[in-house]
Amino acid sequence: MAEEAAIIARVLASPLDVDAAAWNALLAQQSHPTPFLRHEYLAALHESGSATPRTGWMPRFMTLWEGDTLVAACPLYLKNHSYGEYVFDWAWASAYEQHGVPYYPKAVVAVPFTPVPGTRLLARDGATRSLLLQAVRQWCEQEGVSSVHMLFASGDDVQSGAEQDWMLRHTVQFHWKNDHYQNFDHFLASLSQDKRKKIRQERRRVAEAGVRFRWSRGAGISTADWDFFYRCYERTYLEHGNPPYLTRDFFARMAAHLPEAWLLFVAERDGRPIAASLIAIGASPSGGNGLKDQNLVAYGRYWGALERVDCLHFEACYYQPLQWCIDHGVQRFEGGAQGEHKMARALLPVQATSAHWLAHPAFAEAVERFLEREGAGVEGYLQELQARSPFKTMA
């Protein structure tokens, strides 16, 4: 009890108010770190104008201190919309509005625009993690915030939420695992004949169109390549009728302050770049599989093209990254949310979990019933997908 009494909470209005070394040291102690929760990433989102009050992301980072020592922290944002989260609660907001109850502002414990599962609560131990989550809820109650949503959380974070009666919500993502593949053909040999044939056909179409790929990593990615990537990334968003979430300055800050986290593939035809895909590289929480870079995991993030080539998206976003992962002994490639087409490329379904707290008792009860029904549907969907494995059936 004495130790808990010595811990005080401070809410900070910017990630820049947190010491970077202390934040990253806490992150390194967690079971599921990703590059997206590094201080450099969150600071770049803020300083580049990508995630700021102007764009609807008002930082209120929760920190716990024991004297001058940071013992727990999490990224906390107040929001007046639900864009850039990838766990969709528009129906909840609509129900609140129909009953004359304000849903916004709400709070999210999340990495803006980044639906990648991983640690959200940085803490030195489980007890401190629980205190941190309690502090988030208590502060939101004091501020009259309608709800808190901890998105794409790690297993440790989910457990802390469940212990405090937060409601759990499950979604499906698609991840690829490196099963000690010696090369891409060895990987293909593990697939069923129709999937193997399909992938070879798709890769052949891109090659016959005269497209060749090159890759660069970290400091080897030139400013010109970053500029070209951003043209592709921006065009993809604009073609869907929306401006991109991330600014060019954000990626400039990544190149300057977190270069080791990025891998860029550039597609060229007749000596001209025509498309690009950007992959993030980070430490894996599991490891231990005997591969030469067993502590690495790759994350598919962004892509875009200036010319249309049949099957170019599959080559840039799946086959080139998978081949790179095999060549470099990377154990997992996370392809992200949505898209059953990823299964045909050997990305298998996995469950991702978020935790939610709603202040209004009646709405909390209604959402809990909804999540029970939705959860049963997600479980059935996972089972259905798992029955459609692209891999060879063992006799």
Helix content: 25-40%
| Main sheet attributes: strand count, strand direction, barrel closure | 11 strands, mixed
- The CATH class of the largest domain: Alpha Beta
Structural class: alpha+beta
Task: Report Rg.
Answer: 22 Å
Task: Tell me about this structure.
The chain has 395 residues and is an alpha+beta fold. It has 2 domains: 2-172 and 351-386, Aminopeptidase, CATH 3.40.630; 179-330, Gcn5-related N-acetyltransferase (GNAT) (Aminopeptidase). It has 12 helices and 15 strands. Helix 8 (193-208) packs across helix 11 (312-327) and helix 9 (223-239) packs antiparallel against helix 10. The radius of gyration is 22 Å and the shape is globular. It starts with a helix and ends in a 9-residue tail after the last helix.
Describe the structure concisely for a colleague:
By secondary structure, the chain is α+β, with helices and mostly antiparallel strands.
Task: Draw up the topology in text.
Elements: H1 2-6, E1 7-12, H2 20-28, H3 39-47, E2 57-59, E3 61-66, E4 69-74, E5 76-79, H4 90-98, E6 106-109, E7 122-123, H5 126-143, E8 147-150, H6 155-163, E9 167-177, H7 184-189, H8 193-208, E10 211-217, H9 223-239, H10 248-257, E11 262-269, E12 272-283, E13 296-305, H11 312-327, E14 332-337, E15 348-358, H12 361-386
Parallel strand pairs: 6-8, 13-14
Antiparallel strand pairs: 1-3, 2-5, 3-4, 4-7, 5-6, 8-15, 9-14, 9-15, 10-11, 11-12, 12-13
Helix pairs in contact: 3-10, 5-6, 8-11, 9-10
Keywords: Transferase
GO molecular function: transferase activity
Pfam family, one: FemAB_like
